[in-house]
Amino acid sequence: MGKTILCACEDVTLSEVRRAFARGHRDLESVKRYTGFGTGPCQGKSCLAAVVQELLRLGATPAEINPFTPRPPAQPVDFGTLAGIDPDTLPLDEGVPVPPTPRPPVPASSGPVPERASVVIVGGGILGLSLAHQLALRGVTDVLVLERSYLNAGASGRNGGGVRAQWSTPTMVRLGLRSLQLFRSFAGETGVNVWFRRGGYLFLAPDGAQVERLERNHAVQRQQGMRTRIVSPDEACTIVPELDRSRFVAASWNPDDGVVFPWPFLWGYAAAAQARGVTVRTFTPVSGIEVSGGLVRSVLTPHGRVRCDTLVNACGAWSPEVARLAGVALPNRPTRHEILVSGPLKPWLGPLVSNLGNGLYFSQSQRGEIVGGMGDPTEPAGISHGSTLRFLSRFSRAITELVPGTAGVPVMRQWAGNYDVTPDNNPILGPAGPANFFQLSGFVGHGFMMAPAVTEIVADALTGRARDEILDRFSLDRFERGPAVREDFIIG
Amino acid sequence: MGPPMARLPDPRFATDCTVHLDGRAVPARTGESVASALLAAGERVLSRSAKYHRPRGPFCLSGSCGSCLVRIDGEPNRRACRTPCRDGMRVETQNGWPDAVHDLLGVIDRLTPGGLDVHHMLTRPRLANEALVAFTRRLAGSGRMPDRASPRGPAASHETFDALVLGAGPAGLSAAEVLAGAGVRLLLVERDRIPGGRLRAGLEPDAAPDGWPAEVARAVLSSGGEVALATSATSLWHDGGAPVCLLVGEEPRRTRVVRAPRILVCTGGHARPPTFEGNDLPGIHSGRALALALAEHGVLPGRRVAVLGTGPEPEALLARFAAAGLQATAVTTPVARARGRGAVRSLDLADGGRVPCDVVAQGAPPTPAPDLLRALGVGVDWDPALEAFTPRVLRDGATGIAGLYAAGEVARPGTAAEAVSWGRRAGEAARG
Ligand SMILES: Cc1cc2nc3c(=O)[nH]c(=O)nc-3n(C[C@H](O)[C@H](O)[C@H](O)COP(=O)(O)OP(=O)(O)OC[C@H]3O[C@@H](n4cnc5c(N)ncnc54)[C@H](O)[C@@H]3O)c2cc1C
């Protein structure tokens, strides 16, 4: 039997689409992420109809074949061309795509909800799902994860996949190191590949003030046993020869940091937790929370009410919305963060490179794309998922300046997610309002790399095994106790 | 290797320059696409595919698919079908070892008849998994990073027009004609160097008179507008709360950020690949694109052409290929598989028949291309008869989004004559 190729860019066969569907990836956004179809240079132009025809034959519903969100640019454009646009001429706005009216129908819930569950986790991002997995490992399997959309719809499916232990405080370094360990063992443990590649992180300091910052962090990291070194521009250029060495004065290099492919973590955690008895329901939003006597009693979904003993809010940028359903105010301020990928290139870039001067960061994915982002100081708070030309021009100016060779590389796709920003850039952990309403949010732009370590600790706390200091350090009432210690080593 | 392709022996199609493919000299015509010159030279394999290292060559020849990416003058992932030939141009195949034609890694395809399950393979033990990650990273990606820095693009200009018409095919031309006639100062954008779109393939000679595209261009100029040829409308964004289009011109290199209160999207559809076993073999192409290469550059796509599909367009293709001296066979029943190594050699039909051929022309209509329209909020519906998503565009070209219009095959496949009248209605609606 030869192959029928439905997506020629990513080499996705007819049988791969069938396998994805059989495994429960039924809607187009999920099939796209699971098979990779539509993510290559043609961006789905020549394969979308063929995949939909097949999904319909397999029994997909009309709502399940809503076409995936179109991502600019519709035709590839070089970084060098985009760098010719002055971003100041392009005021920031909501971006594209503008959602259509009426909104397309949403697929049906992936199954019925039970009448009760010991632990209900709202939000099927990396934090919610890894917590479910950690609870299951501890024998707590009466757990229900409720996700409003498909897995990977939130920041966990939109991030850059950078994972590091180069942080500025002993606590964050410890969590980063533990997560790196868990990333390494993930494939073996769950049987799902996540393409963890230890290529290191290279932080570039363009001036003396940034060098001092790197040196302070370096001391903290060495104390924790890390191999971080401060290196000269010449040495940095032996690690990434394409860098323009005149653009920075020193760099901080840890060869043990790395990058992952984010999407499979969510299926991997979900499958591992479900294999132990946890229930995961996609396309099932929580629309209300019932509180009485100082406790959450149940959550409301379109498919019924679920009673619970503990409710965990793991909704990332949407956590304040969900907390409000229980009358709880969280200080999180969601803020859009844009990101892009180039077309696939042969391996040339080992580490994730971050320029502390302007927030530019980029790495090379397992498939060879340059993946990168750059925060925008003019970005207002508020959830937004639109893409802007302004971002393309800002990013392209920054990357072509630092890596002049990228001028002739075409950009393939851009998109956006939301950082879940807190006043001190640290997460919010522990109960807030009702005593059994547990918060697991506020991971800014580094929740992916924190999730494995943090959820281990949270699972220990929820099962009464151990209580780590981060539960006090990162509790909501820290903001009332006095000035909180701000994490300043945030990128993007 | 496939049979040598060639050009019609007509002095109009004489080659006048040379491009180099992996060091081999290929005669070409200045300004024709690299893909067209390579097809005429019988060079069909331009890269190897991402996972299975299957041979890849141009399919759509019109910028819709991603199958013709090559390295050109040291820059990776260039589309051979969108890059005009220049004398001395260096073209390199991608992702083959040692090159795309002789790729030794093609063995991956043969060893994995049922495909690979990349998510679950070799996850343990850890050493095996780490070796897998290291190995697949080396195989991944297609183009190599540029060897040197190319200059940054020119500073972008910011411009405003009364109307922006994207695409100078039958729909865009007739919309532009109406607007220009009403004195609207418009910018008509065409990614090719010659206006006309599908009319240039000559498959529907009655759809419009010969000199019409040039006439429309003159009308646009005389109403104070501009025609931008060899200029690609890369996408529509919404920066600053209003639609904005980024135009990239090839020769001269030019970057333009354009705003207009009326935008008419007439950029045509996407060629639709067939879906049978072996459907990605080099030698299988969009029929309309083959007809265009034949009409403009005398490219003979092969000796024996199998034309897929029924209806006026496949019939016109058959007639066109036969007139050029090729043996053309109509394939009107379902195809089970394409056979061949490195290039198509025959088609097995579902009814047991077999069609020997060295090129396959896809005659099925293109799928609509709602990408640009969706950016600004136009919804789409699955059309079971067309087996494609169609954007919500009315008969008069309105989209429900203020100032945004569409006409022609970007919205729905049809004849060129239908596109002409749809474009006219859209022009009238936009004129107000
Ligand atoms: C562009 C970008 C790049 C980033 N790069 C990195 C990086 O390199 N490394 C890193 O570690 N981190 C990175 N981050 C941050 C990281 O992605 C996030 O911190 C992390 O994914 C947060 O996970 P989460 O589970 O809290 O949130 P999410 O993944 O957003 O999950 C929350 C889920 O809750 C669901 N939800 C919301 N409301 C409801 C409701 N009412 N009912 C049910 N479900 C609901 C949402 O649909 C969503 O799926 C990046 C973020 C962005 C946006």
Key structural traits:
heterodimer, A: 492 residues, alpha+beta, Arc Repressor Mutant, subunit A, FAD/NAD(P)-binding domain, nine-stranded mixed beta sheet, eight-stranded mixed beta sheet, 14 helices, B: alpha/beta, Ubiquitin-like (UB roll), 2 domains, five-stranded mixed beta sheet, five-stranded parallel beta sheet, 9 helices, 27 strands
Describe this structure in words.
The complex is a heterodimer of chains A (492) and B (432). Chain A is α+β, with helices and mostly antiparallel strands and 492 residues long. Among the domains of chain A are: 5-68, Arc Repressor Mutant, subunit A (Orthogonal Bundle); 116-158 and 263-332 and 424-481, FAD/NAD(P)-binding domain (3-Layer(bba) Sandwich), CATH 3.50.50.60. Chain A has 14 helices and 21 strands. Chain A has a 9-stranded mixed β-sheet. In chain A, strands 4, 5, 11, 12, 13, 14, 20 and 21 form an 8-stranded mixed β-sheet that branches. A two-stranded antiparallel sheet of chain A has the order 1-2. In chain A, strand 12 and strand 13 form a beta hairpin. Chain B is of the alpha/beta class and 432 residues long. Chain B has 2 domains: 11-139, Ubiquitin-like (UB roll) (Roll), CATH 3.10.20; 157-270 and 367-431, FAD/NAD(P)-binding domain, CATH 3.50.50. In chain B, 22% of the residues lie in helices and 25% in strands. Chain B has helices spanning 34-40, 107-111, 126-139, 170-181, 212-222, 287-297, 312-323, 371-375, 416-431; strands spanning 6-7, 17-21, 24-28, 47-48, 55-56, 69-72, 75-79, 90-92, 157-160, 163-166, 186-189, 226-228, 231-237, 244-249, 254-259, 263-265, 284-286, 299-300, 304-308, 327-331, 335-339, 346-349, 354-356, 359-362, 380-383, 388-391, 404-406. Chain B has a 5-stranded mixed β-sheet, covered by helices on one side. A 5-stranded parallel β-sheet of chain B has the order 12-11-10-16-27, with helices on one face. Chain B has a 4-stranded mixed β-sheet with strand order 9-15-14-13. The longest helix of chain B is centred in the last third of the chain and has 16 residues, at 416-431. The radius of gyration of chain B is 22 Å and the shape is globular. Chain B starts with 5 loop residues before the first strand and ends with a helix. The model of chain B has no long low-confidence stretch (mean pLDDT 96). The chains are: A alpha+beta (492), B alpha/beta (432). The structure holds flavin-adenine dinucleotide. Flavin-adenine dinucleotide (FAD) binds next to helix 5, strand 15, strand 19 and helix 12 of chain A.
